Amino acid sequence: MKVAAIQMVSAIAREANLARAHDLLAQAAAAGAELAVLPEYFCMMGARDTDKLGLRETAGAGTVQGFLADAAREFGLWIVGGTLPIESNDAEHVFNSSLCYSPDGQCVARYDKIHLFYFDNGTERYDERRVIAPGSTPVVFDLPSRDGHRWRVGMSVCYDLRFPELYRALAKQGADLLLVPSAFTRTTGAAHWEVLLRARAIENLAWVVAPAQGGTHQNGRHTWGQSMVVDPWGTVVAQQALEEGVVLFDIDAGQTGRMRAQLPVLSHCVL
Known about the structure:
Layout: E1 2-7, H1 14-30, E2 35-37, H2 51-54, H3 63-75, E3 78-80, E4 84-87, E5 94-101, E6 107-112, E7 118-120, E8 125-127, E9 132-133, E10 140-144, E11 150-155, H4 164-172, E12 177-179, H5 186-204, E13 207-210, E14 214-216, E15 222-224, E16 227-230, E17 236-240, E18 245-250, H6 253-262
Parallel strand pairs: 1-2, 2-3, 5-9, 11-12, 12-13
Antiparallel strand pairs: 1-18, 3-5, 4-5, 5-6, 7-8, 10-11, 13-16, 14-15, 16-17
Helix pairs in contact: 1-3
């Protein structure tokens, strides 16, 4: 199955970001992708954290959800819409939600980011807890590919990557493909991004598709980029450094099976 990890440098204006996402999804479809994954915050990188509150959507309705459904139908793609703000029970917070749409435009899975980013090195400070409510449930969905394999796809977002127990929970639910739409900072990404992605692939002998924000944004934020696909042995098989683009690779379910037969770590878990 050909997958596309879409890298963006999202701006403040939602409509401009959706236009760029549409063009990149069109490129992915033209290249033969079956699954395209957009990065975290693909629809907006606001001037301030609280901008997310103004663009929140009700689950099942809204501009961004409509865009994703329409694009899935238009291109005949499975699309995972990075993240978008979905209303929570608290007026001061939203969920940072990743939604999957099937080629008929149906939303088949929703994952609310569980682990919320906090970083303060005295120069940079981020605290997602200010406006984001944490999710609580790991999510896996089925994706039947054109070659007849039924992929079990585990969902995650950005900072989740630092918590291997989440990915082991996904693997225990049968996940053989792990998605990590992200917006790593330049500081943390340079130090940790690739090694964490490769570790999650190796630990679970699963494919990892990790689209990212990558560049200097209109709001002044600097994101690391390096969108990539990692195979179950931990090898980076496709990658783009910075700026927007489409990272494509044909992932092979047979490789996952062979690796897991040769090194059956998932059957050796004792905890």
